[in-house]
Amino acid sequence: MIHFAVVMGVVPAVQQVRHALADALDATRYFAGDRFERVGPSGGWVAAGIAAVDPLCEPRVVACGDALAVLDGSASGTGHHREDLAGHLLDSFVQAGPPGVHAALTGTYGFVGISPTLGLRAFGDFSGLQPLFWGHGPGFAVVSNRSTTVRELVGGEGWDLHAMSWLVGYSEHFGERMPAVGSSLLIPGSEAQVAWGDHKVKIVRSDALTWPAPNDEPGPDPTPSEWDEITAAAIDYVRSQHDASTRMIFFLTGGKDSRLALALAKAAGLSDEQLAVRTMGPPDSPEVEVAKAVADAAGFAHKRMGPPVDDEGPSGAIRHPDAAWLDLCHHLYRYDGGITPWDGITDDLSGTVIQVKGFGGELYRRTNVKNIRKRAIMTLDELSAAICASPQPHDPLGLLRPEERARQVELRRAWVQAAVADVRLDLVPERFYIEQHLSQWNGQIDLPKPGRINVNPLIQPALAQKVLEVPLAVRQEERFHFEIMRRAAPELVGIPFLDDTWAAAVRDGSPLPLPAKPFPTAVRTRTGLLGRVWARTRGRGRARRPAAVLRPEPYRYLTLPGMDQLIDRAADETAMGSVCDMARLAELARDPDRIGSAAEVKSFLSCVAMALALLGRDEAVLDRPMELLL
């Protein structure tokens, strides 16, 4: 894994910034490792960073004369180019530019290349799961995989209130403007270019995916032979990603995406020797129950991961308040203020695990947004309204000032208008999913780091391209999941899902018997105010045991001592009141029992993170990579 910054510009400016690189990296580093520096002989560029133990690719930085290649992410080389992958990418970049790099890689990646002919080019795979950030300074441009590193180098100060307020409104960041002042996200499907000897960044559309134009007609339904070809290509892609000598943890849930990923892994020839199948949850978790049935059917051993829970449910105990506050401060630092504390909060990390997940599978079944997924083609106004209410109700606690709330709605509507002018109307949700969810949430929370490196077998450019070509009904009916799974591992399509089923149209046309009801788990699930409430099923009836509300750990941060004092300080000493209703926030800090749904908890905790940031309470955390763990 790597934490890096690449600077290019006029020679005097680059040489001046070179002396600040080490300090900028030190001020924003999040793991221990070895330092490196590469300097172009012309003096027009410099690259520096910190590299740690990496089971997927070493080295990740290669320079030859005035040419440079930097690779970030869990990518693998196509064909036989597995050794010295970065060196091969440098050759591909110099000879063929970005298309040569895309052709040489599988998986998720961010790439920065420099050559005298091409200048600087920064781009990633289509998903944005390995985000890159950029900024301008006097006479230079900088690209990094950490937004606060960009801020340090360009001379930005503090936090952007408008950027942070997206987490309060939607629990996800939106747009290119990042919380770290002076830094911008390279939106998926975009490429940053800096001409040789220049310092101005130009953002252009990349060729990672080809989106149908507004007037393009969708293609026909794939034929059975075409589904055979699609499945074979998907299996080959997964096979190309995996080194038989590397053991990984496969996280299996009760849903469709991870099951499809497991089907592809099995068809690609992976076994217990390469994959340790695990599911997170307490002993009586319905998720664990369903996942075990799937793993057993696929021929993989399965284990549960998670703490024991007694018959009365979790105690609700929390870490010592001082340690819990430190968790929040570390979370703010680790994710550069771009992720709500509901997601990804963790203790300090050590060791490294390669884990496989079904991230990205929602693209093949029309996004992660339920109020969009099953609907027919919507009008422009209907689509704008749905996206303005995604992935959760906007500002659920009413914590944003009216003008900030209106600003967010207007920016989302403007995004929809721009997207409709560029792609076919029924594909706008898919573009929103890639640009504003995969990149803004999954990408930032799952950057390779000590503790985990993510491999995403469903992020396949050819498969994603095919999704953009088929009719809407194929995507709505989740035909990609079904047709590929029934060919790759037919024994898995007949196992019911947790709280879900195959679409009626799929069941009616299936050559295999498919269940019409969800998995009959021993524990019934329903959505409670603060998480999932599980109830034991006894005999033929459904007698609930005493309710055990399994509150996610972040809920318990609401009752930390000193919460009201933090909000009062932020109101008195910062400009947070320009975007948030501080009186309303103070009321909730003093009476957290009024905060109910998960969306409300996320919104409140995002305000807490903003207050900590503006008061300078982000606290550096140094995670420590060690040997590869299982």
Describe this structure in words.
The chain is an alpha+beta fold. The protein folds into 2 domains: 2-205, Aminohydrolase, N-terminal nucleophile (Ntn) domain (Glutamine Phosphoribosylpyrophosphate, subunit 1, domain 1), CATH 3.60.20; 211-520, Rossmann fold, CATH 3.40.50. It has 19 helices and 24 strands. The strands form 6 sheets. It has a 6-stranded antiparallel β-sheet, with helices on one face. A hairpin with a 2-residue loop joins strand 10 and strand 11. Residues 311-316 and 526-550 have low confidence and may be disordered.
What is the topology, as strand order, of the major beta sheet? 2-3-1-11-10-12
Largest sheet: 6 strands, antiparallel
Poorly predicted runs are: 311-316, 526-550
Continuous helix count: 19
| Architecture (CATH level 2) name of the largest domain | 3-Layer(aba) Sandwich
Which CATH class of the largest domain? Alpha Beta
Rg over CA atoms = 24 Å
> What gap, in angstroms, lies between the N and C termini?
17 Å
Work out the number of β strands: 24
